[in-house]
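Side project, low priority. Logging it here so it doesn't get lost.
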Amino acid sequence: MKKTTKIVAAVTLALMAGGASAAWVDGNTLGSPSSVSFQISDSVNQNTFVLDLAVGHAGLNYASFQNGTQGANGILTWDLSSLGGATFTPFSADTASFKWSVAGSYQVDGDAGTNVDRSGSLAPFTDTANWGVQTTVHNTSTLTQANYTIIQQAADPSAGKVATWINGLNAPDSANGAAVASIAPISGTSYYDTNYSDLGTLGGGQNFTGAASADFWGVTNPTLDAGNNVFTKLGTFSLSSGNVLTFTSASVAAVPLPGVVWLFLSGLVGLLGLNRRRTALLA
């Protein structure tokens, strides 16, 4: 029994470490919006940790965030130590040195823009914001209001920054398709820094350091017009000092106070007013 357990554990670790078949989707496959990737560059040892956010949340992809269908009540969590296991262990003590980001992209279909007008095979979305780039940014000033070709330059699988990164995770010298992986540095520089730069002319500033919160934005151009790029805040990612990543959707409304609380507050205000009147009469 113990021997069987060891074999299963070894196979599981091998798959997690990079022996799995190509799991990362670049957003250029018909009807398949891309994987959304979370990545860390550890400045202490220059290793890179990558996580497909569908791990632990089956089916999660670009469309989930764009359409607000992610998670119960719009809140998702990933315990990196638990999901990463031995793969994440070398990173677990270095949270303060992490440089991290989240990104995804979905390429516009060049054939009559069918995933833009939602009339063709690329129509998995329920709104017009159905292609483009998703990225963590510090503020919208880092995003460039320009024509749709700027977004294509970031989403294009052959040359775009985001899709090229996602495609690169399927390569033998990186994650090799594993949805959870640790990638060794290249000539002393992290794989993250070597292959994942800012989003070029679309805008930069998507890198965050250590335990921090990062706004997550969608950038699209629903009509393929010049100068009509649309920026939509999709939510916020937070990385805790305990290595737990949390996403809170922008659609999550503030929790209203229960009626009994309002009743208590109104009664308290009434009592204060009564005391004031009594004090005035005595005076």
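Brief comment: Residues 258-283 form one domain.
Revisit when time allows.
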